[in-house]
Amino acid sequence: MNTSSNNDSAQEKFYPVSTGVFRVLPKSRPPFSLYMYDRHLGDFKPVSEPGKVIVSSEKERIYKACESGMVYISSKDLQACEPYLSTHLKIVLEDLADSLSAVELAPLILSSMETLIAPLFKESVKLNFERFNEAVPALIETLEQNPAILEHILGRLEREHSLTNKALATGFTGLAVCMLGRETKTDMQTLLHCAYALFLCDIGLCRLPDFVLGKEFSLTVDEQKRIKHHPILSLEILTATKAIPKPSLIAILEHHERLDGSGYPRGASGDSISWIGKLCGAVDSFVAMIMDRPGKRSMSRVNALKTLYRESSMYDPNIIYALEKVMLKD
Ligand SMILES: [Fe+2]
Fold it and tell me: How close is the Cα of 170 to the center of ligand 1, in Å?
C-alpha cells in the first residue's frame, strides 16, 4: 500500500517502512527523512531530518512505530535510499516490492544486482556467492508477479562492455525472453534455473587475463584455447558453491554450444543441448553484439537480431523470435 500526500506536492507518495528496511537504512546522518502519518493534520510529519543523527531513544521509538506500520518514506527520497537498499535486495523485495511501482523497482533491482554480481566477477565467488544466492529466488518471485519491471530494467542496462555489465544484460534480457517473449508460461523452477545460468555463465572469464579479454581480433592459438575453455572454468567455479541447480550448471557448460555443432567446448548439437543452454547461447550472443567495446562499434538491436536470424542454423528460432518480441516491443 502506498499513500499520496495531501500537501502541495501532489505527486509525492509515501511507502510503509518495515522493521527490516529500517534496520538497513543509515541512522547516522541519513540523507533523507522518515515520516509518520498525523491523523489530526491529515498529512505526513517528518520524524527524522536529513543529515541529522537518529539517536538511540529515537531509533527505538521509530523501530516500534515500524512494527505497527506507522513509519513511511517519501517517493522523493527513494533515490537517496538506493545505496543502502541496494545491498539488501532480499529485504527490499520482501518488504517493499508490493508498495513500489515497476518504474520505482527497476533502478533499485538493477543497482542491487550490480552490487551482488560485481564482487563475484571482480573479487571472489567463494566469498560473495551467499548474498547473491539468497537474493535470486526473491528476485524471480518479484519479476514473475510483475514482469513489467523487466521492461524498465532493459531500458536502463549499461551498453559499455565489462564482465559485470554483460552478466546483468544477459541475465535480465534472458529473463525478459522467458517472462515477456514466450507464448507458454515458464514455470518458477525453470526461471530460477535460467537466472543462475544467464547471470553467471561467463564467470570463468574472470580467470583470464585482462589483455586476452580486451582482444577482439588477432587472438593467438593459445589465447583462443583459453577463451574456449571458459565454460568449463565457469562450471568448475560454480560447482564448488554446491548451491547451483544441475540444469543451470549444464546450461552454463553449454552456453557456447551451437545447434549445428559448431560451438564449444564439446561441439554438441541439436537437442543434445538443453533448452536453457540454447537460451543462454542466443541471449549471450545478442548481448555481446549490442555492447560497446573499445575499438568495436556496437550493433543496433535490429542488426543484432538480423545477424542471429542469418545464423539461424546455430540458434533456436523460437528463442530468437521471443527475443525479437521483447527487444523490438516499442
Ligand atoms: Fe561465454
Answer: 10
pLDDT digits (tens, 9 = 90+) for 259-288: 999 999 999 999 999 999 999 999 999 999
Q: How far, in Å, from the CA of 252 to the mean position of ligand 1?
A: 8
Q: How many angstroms does the Cα of residue 213 sit away from the middle of ligand 1?
A: 11
Question: How many Å apart are CA 258 and CA 107, to the nearest integer?
Answer: 34
**Separation of 237 CA from ligand 1 center, angstroms?**
14
Report helix, strand or coil for 214: coil
Sort 11 into a burial class: Cβ within 10 Å, 0-12 / 13-18 / 19+.
exposed
pLDDT for residue 296 is more than 90: no
CA of 137 to the centre of ligand 1 (A): 23
Burial of 118 (0-12, 13-18, 19+ CB in 10 A): middle
Distance 201 CA to ligand 1 centre (A): 6
Mind listing the pLDDT tens digit for each residue in 61-92? 999 999 999 999 999 998 899 889 988 999 99
What is the homologous superfamily of the domain 86-327 according to CATH?
Answer: Hypothetical protein af1432 (1.10.3210.10)
Going from N- to C-terminal start, the domains of the chain cover: 1-76, 86-327
pTM of the model: 0.90
